[in-house]
Amino acid sequence: MATRCFTVTKEARIPVTGLVHGGVVSFTGTVAPAITAENYAGQRITHVTLAAGQSITVRKL
């Protein structure tokens, strides 16, 4: 299982590949991060949108 942590100082939309069967382990802040996904060139890309100063930990299951 791969675990990745992301922290931003300004609002950001982060593309993450390889997270098809994964999920949020933990996050900071009062609002859950927005998570969307799309297929691009045959690959699934997950987009994680974080507010300024927010952190998230995601894990591929």
Can you offer a commentary on this structure?
This protein is mainly β. The chain has one domain. Helix content is 0%, strand content 62%. It has strands at residues 3-7, 12-17, 22-27, 34-40, 43-50, 55-60. It has a three-stranded antiparallel β-sheet with strand order 1-6-3, with no helix packed on it. A three-stranded antiparallel β-sheet has the order 2-5-4, with no helix packed on it. A hairpin with a 2-residue loop joins strand 4 and strand 5. It starts with a strand and ends with a strand. The relative contact order is 0.46.
Please give a quick description of this structure:
The chain contains no helices and six strands.
SSE layout and pairing:
Elements lengths: L2 E5 L4 E6 L4 E6 L6 E7 L2 E8 L4 E6 L1
Antiparallel strand pairs: 1-6, 2-5, 3-6, 4-5
The overall pLDDT average reads: 86
Largest sheet: 3 strands, antiparallel
C-alpha-based Rg, rounded: 11 Å
As laid out across the biggest beta sheet, the strand order is 1-6-3
List its salient traits.
single chain, 61 residues, mainly beta, three-stranded antiparallel sheet, 62% strand, globular
